[in-house]
Amino acid sequence: MSFDVISIIGLGYIGLPTAAAFAARRKKVVGVDVSQSAVDTINKGEIHIVEPELDMLVHAAVTQGHLRATLIPEPADAFLIAVPTPFCDGNKPDLSYIEAASRSIAPVLKKGDIVVLESTSPVGATEKMSAWLANCRPDLTFPQHAGEQSDIRIAHCPERVLPGHVIRELVQNDRVIGGMTRRCGELARDLYQIFVQGDCILTDARTAEMCKLSENAFRDVNIAYANELSMICDRLDINVWELIRLANRHPRVSILQPGPGVGGHCIAVDPWFIVDSAPDEAKLIRTARGVNDGKSHYVIEQTKRLAARFKAPVIACLGLAFKANIDDLRESPAIDIVNQLADERVADIVVVEPNVAVLPEALRGKVELTSLTSAIEAADIVLLLVDHREFKDINRRRLQSKLLVDTRGIFS
Ligand code: SAJ
Q1: Domain ranges for the chain
Q2: d(CA 279, CA 87)
């Protein structure tokens, strides 16, 4: 199948780079998003997110006529759904965005099309998507009931790219492709092979769903180990960064880095999808979530103890993003920490975040966003929350008279 027109539903951190990758292979790509401003920005050849190299790719794709964005889905040969899967109360997966995206494309589906779910999803979500589509289009057959003979093909191919390295990883990473049937998987593999240079490995949809969740839970558990070590080392007066460097000299040891907690919309979220579907068995995975969330509270208490030494302390909080050198503030532990310190009126707080122009809603009116130079000058305490490159370059002499809480180990 030649896939003349490819439609990407959701033009965010995954959907937009994926759309640009197909467009770079001269495919006609129609991107769909519910945000008018995202659609307008993209149609001008610009981008609404920060990701290295993406601006050039999108600009080229739009000006050469390969990529166009729209609010309303149009007919295509392949549909890729890349919308958020957050969790709602009780850490339960919220599939409402996938459901809304499915319902929006259902009217334009035609016999022979393939629909691929890219969003990270709990086990069974691809089957649900197929059922929602089937409900909307009783005139077409779907793999759940028609098996290999269905009119519409359905597969799950979870995205696995690392924010900050998306353009390279999108092309080079292997892809796990879970077809609802063998034929669905094979067709999805043909689709991804348009731009993926890594291996495209076939499995069933449930295994592909669980594979993605297992990867992120694996990382969460390993970060929890590093975070727990950091708290143990504080108690025992040992420099955890040196300890980890030394332990990692062992050929079979590779400890990750402690931080202020785990953020982002993936690693802090996806393990809950496993816990939700197997609550009695997922003990280690649940505990790791608790350790990583607990690390943020630990940093807050550490900072409060230092602030108590001053009459009118000023704290410079360096970084709000969920990790280094990106503008993504989703589920960022840095924001929770700053927010709580501000709510408890622990100090006057100035914030530096080189990757955003305005404070997130949660912090507006509570803290001041300022430049690195003036924040450090004003501060009694410097709370380093994100290891952005701008902070690594700080002249250490400017920190000499300050108390430091260095959650990322860049000053030690
Ligand atoms: N972190 C640490 N210490 C470390 C590594 C990370 O505290 O040693 C923290 C980061 O600061 C951040 C959080 O963990 O707050 C997550 O960052 P990350 O770089 O580990 O991962 P993400 O969320 O940017 O991307 C992950 C990746 N998954 C894995 O590495 C298994 C990526 O490949 C996935 O595509 C992505 O989740 C996703 O979309 O699911």
Answers
A1: 5-198, 238-406
A2: 15
Residue 98 beta carbon below 6 angstroms from any ligand 1 atom? no
In terms of Cβ atoms closer than 10 Å to its own Cβ (0-12, 13-18, 19+), residue 145 is exposed
Distance 371 CA to ligand 1 centre (A): 27
Q: Looking at domain 5-198, what is its CATH homologous superfamily?
A: NAD(P)-binding Rossmann-like Domain (3.40.50.720)
Distances (CA, A) of 344 to 303, 312, 347, 351: 12, 14, 8, 16
Pocket test for ligand 1, best of 14, 161, 162, 225 (most atoms within 8 A of CB): 162
Residue spans of the chain under pLDDT 50: none
Q: Which fold has domain 238-406?
A: Rossmann fold (3.40.50)
pTM comes to 0.94
Our answer on whether the CB atom of 262 is closer than 6 Å to any ligand 1 atom is: yes
Instruction: Look at ligand 1, atom 7, and give the residue with the nearest C-alpha.
Output: 259
3, 78 in Cβ contact below 8 A?
A: yes
Is there a shared CATH topology between the 5-198 domain and the 238-406 domain?
A: yes
pLDDT in tens, 333-359: 999 999 999 999 999 999 999 999 999
Q: Which atom of ligand 1 is nearest to the CA of 173?
A: 33
What does the alpha-carbon distance between residue 368 and residue 388 come to, in Å, rounded to a whole number?
Answer: 19
In the reported structure, the alpha carbon of residue 266 is separated from the centroid of ligand 1 by a whole-number distance in angstroms of 7
Residue appearing with tokens 């965005």: 97
